[in-house]
Amino acid sequence: QPLLFQKGQHPTVFDFHTPYWLVVADSGIAGNTKSTVERVKTAYDSPYPARKAAVHQAIDGLGELTPRFAEALTASQSSLEVLASIIQSAQTYLQSLQVSSPELDFGIQEMLKHGAVAAKLTGGGGGGCYYGLVETHDQALALQEALTHSPYASDTWLMPLSSQY
Predict the structure, then answer these.
(1) Over the stretch 41-83, which tens digit does the pLDDT of each residue have?
(2) Helix (H) or strand (E) holding 160
(3) 120: helix, coil or strand?
């Protein structure tokens, strides 16, 4: 079940259904969530005002995107453009936090080059998986096929963007 986590609130279950698809790809490189979190925490507490301000702005931005994304998913007609915009904004914030990696960034670019309307890392970053959003199952199959011939994905999976799969 999808859960929505928001600071200071209990996690809430939410259901959604969109006609869209996700292609999830594994970079083949194990991420290290603990190390990534420690780096972000160090930057968050940085004695350098510019670094500290940038990290706070990125984290605040991600915090603002979360309820917007949940709202967009549960709208009576989910907008592909709105979902794509939120996903891309989140990836930009994650890159500014240095949570992404060159391998993830290149894989994400590969997805965008081959039909994804948006793509971002998932998980703790520094390696691991990333996903791309497409409109149709046929587009998801084509993107999966393109990634099969790419050095940026060791494995791929297709998922409907729905809590009811």
Answers:
(1) 889 899 999 999 999 999 999 999 988 998 999 887 789 999 9
(2) strand 155-162
(3) strand
Give the alpha-carbon dihedral of 32, 159, 102, 65, to 10 degrees: -80
Closest CA to 30 of 127, 130, 107: 127
Taking CA atoms, 157 is separated from 9, 60, 95, in Å, by 32, 31, 24
| Per-residue pLDDT tens over the stretch 135-153 | 999 999 999 999 999 999 9
DSSP 77-96: S--HHHHHHHHHHHHHHHHH
Tokens at residue 76, please?
């009576």
pTM for the model: 0.90
Sheet holding 17-26, edge to edge: 118-122, 129-134, 17-26, 155-162
Say how far apart CA 86 and CA 72 lie, in whole Å: 9
End-to-end alpha-carbon separation of the chain, Å?
Answer: 10
Tell me how crowded residue 14 is: count the other CB atoms within 10 A of its CB.
Answer: 14
Q: What confidence tens digit (pLDDT) does each residue in 83-96 have? A: 999 999 999 999 99
